Amino acid sequence: MKRISQYFLKGLLFIIPLFATVYAVYWIFIKIDTLLTLPVPGLGFIVTIVFITFVGFAASNFLTQRVVHMVDRVFTRLPLVKMIYTSIRDLVGAFVGDKKSFNRPVQVVIDREKNIRLLGFATRESLDAIGIRDSMAVYIPQSYNFAGNLIIVAREQVVPLEADPGEVMKLIVSGGVSAN
Q1: CA quadruple 154, 155, 161, 164: dihedral positive or negative?
Q2: How far apart are the first and last CA of the chain?
């Protein structure tokens, strides 16, 4: 009975994010189609892409940057909203934009004797601000999953890699099976 409940939970962990994502995308496009009363189904997709691109252009424009900064300031001061907004903002910013965080691939030596290592990305060189000395933060993405772990390791355990960050991420996420 315990094994059946474990299978059920694993099934939920797979199905819920999948269907939630598909439903959210479907819902957004349908809502845009109905809000704009567009005669052609699916035109909402094009309108959404154009709108997002326009917002990106406007946010990059010198005149509208003040508005963007004002909205950012408001959202970062609201309780609870701050936690959600800044987490999502920082996660997206880690992959794109000027403040990419996953651009320093490293290997972390776990066991020198057995030559066990992890691949990841150095995200913070110093943790002095939170009282952890002589250590650094390394993000270890998980294979076949949009998740990972932040590990704190001694600096001497971290070896920088001279590799393209995108290639390292592809290798990790594919479980090592992705080829160049």
Answers
A1: positive
A2: 44
| Position 48, amino acid | T
SS3 152: strand
Backbone angles phi, psi at 115, to 5 degrees: 55, 45
Q: Give φ, ψ of 175 to 5 degrees.
A: 75, 20
The pTM score is 0.50
Please, which contacts does 3-7 make with residues 24 or more away whose CB atoms are closer than 8 Å?
A: none
| Beta strands 116-124 and 158-160, pairing class | unpaired
Strand, coil or helix: 84:
helix
pLDDT in tens, 38-69: 677 777 778 777 887 887 787 777 667 777 78
Two tokens, residue 122? 């150095």
Q: How many CB atoms lie within 10 A of CB 134?
A: 10
